[in-house]
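Supplementary notes (optional reading)

For those who missed the lab, this is the record we used. Protein: MaoC-like domain-containing protein. Length: 397 residues.
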Amino acid sequence: MARRKRRPEEPAEELSVHELIDGPTMDLTAARNALAARAGGEPADELPTLATEATQDLSALANDRTQDLSALAGDRTRDLSGAAAALGADPTAATLTAPERTTPEGRVRVDLPRLPAAGALYRRALLGALPGLGGRRGADVPEVELGVAGVTVDRAHLADYDRVCGFRLADRLPGTYLHVLGFPLSLRLMTAAEFPIPLTGVVHVANRITVHRPVEAGETVNFRTYAENLRPHERGRQLDVVLVGSVDGEEVWRGVSTYLGRERRAGGPRRAPGDRPAPPAASAHWRVTPRVGTDYARVSGDHNPIHTSKLGARLFGFPRPIAHGMWSKARCLAALESRLPEAYTVDVAFKLPVPLPSTLAFSATATGADWDFALHSAQDGRPHLVGTVAGEGGGPG
């Protein structure tokens, strides 16, 4: 049967579950060359497609992909090519922090030559979830910090993001935009084999963003990312992934995303059930269509099928696709855009998923110069998101 051609308006990175499973998994040239080098052979100039390469050993590639990052963190003297290969980077282009190759916090620093491609990383995560290819998960967060320098803003992409999330078109970056810009770097960390929580099925439960000063579209940003604070939760384990944006050596933006890995044997204390409080009075109602999932996937690079595919959502226990949590946060921030100070912290907790389609009730209350805001279901008042905005220095720590 002939393969259906992609229509011009379909984004190239928007993947169905079928394509995620059966499509090309990643550019495996670097992995194959690493295997050849360890075996004493010559690196291949190019890698034919998996469909035509009869001698390609997929399990070996999966084993190469599952390089133990904890060993990288523990061995401060290993050479640069080994560190880069463990992270799937070009070993000739990545560099380690000199002279000790560690950060002040003791993490091994690896600088990548460019931002990774998010689509390939999602395919890698799904490949790792298949039986026999996943490898062993780490007992703690990897003591590795990834960095990338010289990231610039595509103004057309910024305008597209503004439209999808409801921001005004401007050169000043929305507070949530740098999360999207640097997200592929964090995603690369989260798809490492030794990352303690598998990406497939992970739940984004909270996000804190601190804007130290406004960032303009013409500025060049350096990013670094690391994970910390692995801890038990009543439904599994959760941890924080930190993403930091700097301009000319000055930290201008920081994001902390809290992710929950659901596990059958949960280790945290269970909360006592209680009555749900009545939602606050709504100041606006928003109709959210399924297109929100696909549009935000296109501008964010987050193509998790629970947001874009009915089948993908059902595979992870959702009756229909759900909105991205960071779209919900961005949409709330856009509603408060004209009231935000120059520097602030916006902290949200994601409650129940937003099914697509649905109608949301947005509420916001000022407390001095700060704001409390929330999203609830307009039908039954179920909470989807609660958050605060506070001027830097007086808000959430």
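If you only remember one thing from this example: The radius of gyration is 21 Å.
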